[in-house]
Amino acid sequence: MKPTTPRPYRSPRRAAQARATREAILVAAGHCFAERGYAGTTMQAIATAAEVAVESVYGLAPKAQLLKLAFERALAGDDEPVPLAGRDGWLTAVALDDQRAMIAEMARYGAPLLLRGAPLARAFLEAASGDEKLGEHWRQLEDDRLTDTRKFVAAVASRGPLRPGVTQETGAIAAWATLNWFSVLCLIDQIGTDEQRHTRWQADILEALLLR
Fold first, then answer.
1. Which of 121, 124, 24, 134 has its CA nearest to residue 79?
2. I need a surface site. Which of 115, 135, 176, 181 has the fewest CB within 10 A?
3. What would you report as the CA-atom Rg of the chain, rounded to the nearest whole angstrom?
4. CA 157 to CA 115: how far, in whole Å?
5. How far is the C-alpha of 143 from the C-alpha of 148, rounded, in Å?
6. What are the pLDDT digits (tens) for 184-209?
7. Is 10 helix (H, G, I), strand (E, B) or coil?
8. In which band, very low, low, confident or very high, does the pLDDT at 33 lie, cut at 50, 70 and 90?
9. Contacts of residue 160, Cβ cutoff 8 Å, sequence gap at least 6
10. Using CA atoms, how far apart are residues 111 and 106, in angstroms rounded to an integer?
11. Please, are residues 168 and 155 in contact by the beta-carbon 8 Å criterion?
């Protein structure tokens, strides 16, 4: 009779504690990177903000990987591996029949995302300039953002004509290039983080680029 292999013990409590620790570290990392930049953020600062031992921070990921994880969490609002174009806000927007209603709904979905991500995007660009892997990841994130923009513009075009002279591709490129992280950072400096104003700005920009 073959000896049985013992099954690994999995404690639900430990798993929950590990998730809570991960969440605390990523939230703290996001705040630190956004406020201090990449160079100004230390692992100890993240540990202090998360109220965990610094060994726990090192155990989760190196500093560059922590920035990547914190940025992705800021964009999605959680750690679920669901593309932004597959989330509820996106699906609600592209399911509408009226072009302007689609744009308004997408702005309601996108404005909080841009506000969360912009301060971390600044830190990401700072870090990516000296880290080849982060630089590659940043380019992939921007490629993904352009792909998502193309999908949305195609959905808008399926409900009616675009502005004269605008194709789906030129409209997508214009929207992707205009609604970028630098533009949002400039707006934050000028009008703060008022979500309602950012939502209105995003909707106005998309309408002007695509429909007027």
1. 24
2. 135
3. 20
4. 27
5. 9
6. 999 998 888 899 999 999 999 999 99
7. coil
8. very high
9. 99
10. 8
11. no
